[in-house]
Design goal:
binds zinc ion, alpha/beta, Zincin-like, 6 helices, four-stranded mixed beta sheet, five-stranded mixed beta sheet, about 260 residues, 2 domains
């Protein structure tokens, strides 16, 4: 089977179900690359190999990295099982608390956080949320997205400006914008434009403030130098805790 890929390698030969002694489907993809590599996702192992490497050599390579692959599979499956579920009765991580999602049919969209001793509930109300509606999860995602975007707009620009003013770089901050990008929670350009991913509003307040500190301190240092991290630790002394929290939980905030 030939597969046209988007990347620089134009044509690759793909063999499905290549090895059957691994816990997941294993694909072998041969292309013009120069070295062997393994990529693991929650439902698939993909071995990428140069065109002329023998199968025996590829199998030796996999045997050598077998423990790493198995550990990676476990980690990816665990993360996949923890991903956010916006269906009625689903679960999400909201402000670091495991939270139940409840749908409610209503004429206008709203999101309400209900705290009770026996747990936290996020009630998503709006149209298309009647029980059994085929697209209710997509409707809930739309309503939650709008709610998070408006929370982000109400909170992040003014906090960002306040911190920039405090650090004496208020005039360097030109613009705060919002974008959902796969790779980054925030971004700061040398032109003074700070970009935030509004999904961060699902995170605890300390993590949000760390992200603001991270970007605003780039107005002082456009790098991740020692001096930069010293500046971050002055305004956000617990920053390492928040970096760690994001690393551990960020996969649960995406939808
Ligand atoms: Zn940075």
């Amino acid at each position: 089977m030939f597969l046209r890929r988007k990347s620089a390698r134009p044509v690759a030969v793909v063999e499905e179900q290549w090895l059957d002694d691994l816990p997941l489907e294993c694909r072998l993809v041969r292309s013009q690359r120069k070295s062997l590599a393994v990529h693991v996702s929650h439902d698939q192992i993909e071995v990428r190999a140069p065109v002329f490497v023998s199968e025996a050599e590829i199998k030796r390579f996999l045997d050598k990295h077998r423990r790493w692959v198995l550990r990676k599979v476990e980690e990816k499956q665990q993360r996949h099982s923890e991903r956010l579920d916006l269906g009625d009765g689903g679960r999400i991580l909201y402000k670091a608390r495991d939270t139940r999602v409840v749908h409610q049919l209503a004429s206008s969209p709203a999101v309400t956080v209900i705290n009770k001793t026996d747990g936290q509930t996020l009630r998503i109300s709006g149209q298309g949320l009647e029980a059994g509606a085929p697209d209710s999860q997509a409707a809930a995602a739309r309503i939650l997205r709008q709610w998070l975007q408006s929370q982000a707009k109400a909170y992040l620009p003014q906090r960002t400006q306040a911190l920039a003013d405090y650090l004496g770089v208020g005039d360097k901050l030109k613009e705060v914008v919002f974008r959902k990008t796969r790779s980054k929670w925030g971004h700061c350009t040398s032109a003074g434009r700070i970009q935030y991913n509004w999904l961060i509003m699902l995170a605890p307040d300390g993590v949000i403030d760390y992200m603001i500190s991270h970007e605003v301190c780039h107005l002082l240092h456009m790098n991740h130098s020692k001096a930069y991290w010293q500046a971050v630790s002055r305004v956000c002394p617990d920053y390492q805790r928040y970096v760690g929290w994001l690393k551990q939980h960020e996969h649960r905030l995406w939808f």
